């Protein structure tokens, strides 16, 4: 029993190469599929992800069903992912190559149809992203873009933004100055009763 669990049935180098090859293939497939696949996963996307792991399983493990073979595959996946993430952290060209660049989908309140079609996004998905980020309509948006990681970044027009604490504090300061000025003017107004001395 222990022998079957720990005996790797294919060469370890082959196991590692199979795992790396499948990892690279999946990365390329997601890169080609685009940012939309990461933005809002719908039912069809979930089906693809669940089935994808099953489809590539045999490509990774080959004829090896041993415990040690599984451990080698798992360690290889985690290691190559860690190395790739560290490479992306230090090389901006690698980020552009492997992840892509942001795509503008809203410019000054207007939905840009060409990028939406290229990304496979529906206007309803963009409108949902606007509402999640405190906007009401596309008209409220100065700039909307889809980042390579699938995040919608929405920059609202200044007229559509909520007041900040700083805005409220500045307004309170101005109101206090106006009240003080009105008090001063009320004391100088002709016919105003003078304070007793």
Output the keywords.
elongated, 2 domains, cell membrane, CRO Repressor, membrane, transmembrane, 197 residues, UPF0702_alpha/beta_dom_sf, 9 helices, four-stranded antiparallel β-sheet, alpha+beta, single chain
Instruction: Give the termini separation.
Output: 107 Å
Low-confidence stretches: none
* SSE order, one letter for each helix or strand: HHHHHHEEHHEEH
Would you report the number of β strands?
A: 4
Largest sheet: 4 strands, antiparallel
Adjacency order of strands in the biggest sheet: 2-1-3-4
What is the residue-averaged pLDDT?
82
Strand content: 5-15%
Count of alpha/pi helices: 9
Overall shape: it is elongated
Gyration radius, to the nearest Å?
30 Å
Provide a short characterization of the protein structure.
With 197 residues, this protein is α+β, with helices and mostly antiparallel strands. The chain is built from nine helices and four strands, in the order ααααααββααββα.
């Amino acid at each position: 029993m222990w022998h079957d669990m720990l005996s790797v049935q294919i060469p370890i180098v082959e196991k590692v190469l199979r795992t790396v090859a499948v990892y690279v293939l999946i990365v390329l497939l997601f890169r080609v599929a685009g940012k939309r696949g990461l933005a809002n996963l719908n039912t069809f996307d979930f089906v693809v992800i669940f089935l994808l792991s099953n489809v590539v399983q045999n490509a990774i493990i080959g004829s090896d069903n041993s415990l040690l073979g599984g451990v080698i595959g798992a360690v290889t996946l985690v290691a190559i992912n860690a190395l790739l993430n560290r490479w992306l952290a230090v090389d901006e060209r690698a980020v552009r190559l492997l992840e892509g660049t942001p795509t503008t989908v809203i410019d000054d309140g207007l939905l840009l149809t060409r990028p939406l079609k290229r990304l496979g996004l529906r206007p309803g998905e963009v409108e949902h992203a606007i509402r999640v980020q405190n906007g009401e309509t596309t008209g409220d948006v100065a700039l909307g873009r889809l980042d390579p990681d699938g995040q919608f970044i929405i920059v609202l027009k200044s007229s559509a933004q909520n007041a900040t604490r700083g805005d409220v504090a500045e307004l309170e300061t101005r109101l206090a100055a106006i009240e003080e000025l009105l008090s001063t003017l009320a004391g100088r107004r002709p016919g105003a009763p003078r304070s007793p001395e």
